[in-house]
Amino acid sequence: MIARFKDLCMDAADAHRLGGFWAGILDGELVDTGDGDTRIDPRAAASNAESIWVNTVPEPRTGKTRVHLDLRLAEPEPAALLAAGARLVREPDAEISWWVLADPEGNQFCAFPPRVGARPGVFELVVDSADPAAQAAWWARVVGGRAETAAEGTTSLAGAAGFPWDHWVFDPVPERKRVKNRVHWDVELNGAEVTPLIAAGATLLREPTPATSWWVLADPEGNEFCAFPARPTP
């Protein structure tokens, strides 16, 4: 194991508007970080890894991001999400039992009906993949856990260090990645250097700068993620 899951990030044209939407539907506190960005801290979170950072970026959204969240609803219908500003993309039908929605900046996410014993909110992180099994196996080497492949080709990573939700799913899709993801995750390294991640197959996209303490990398299918050095032990 090289690192642990740290948190999730979203690119935004308007970090306060997008952060306000997600804070509202996740029953979270919207935190103004003072630099134009925001953070959502869900009130019922079990760990800081459930926080979502919303970062202002200059480039507009183009194409479909390959990373999205699945939410468990508190009510049988997503009326509250639509009232908060979500847009309906697809209703349940003979093929799917969930709603596909988009947030105010067009990022798609899925909303599932309530389930007995399941708390409302985020329960899955889903990553579109050309080779789900290989992707899950690679990330298992990075953050631990085990890859479990279902009959339909979807592969889940179970037991990843620091991962806060029920499922981390790598879903088969026919298309390759073409644009930068608007949603990505961060990891915290076990040490101070990124060398083990690069040796494992990550691609270095950007070194730390005077204003940033983290590396920007990409996994074997080009999904961007940030790696932070290990926090000093008290």
From TrEMBL:
Pfam families hit by this protein: Glyoxalase_6
Residue ranges constituting the Glyoxalase-like domain according to the UniProt record: 8-111, 125-227
Name recorded for this polypeptide: Glyoxalase-like domain-containing protein
Organism this protein belongs to: Micromonospora chaiyaphumensis
Lineage of origin: Bacteria, Bacillati, Actinomycetota, Actinomycetes, Micromonosporales
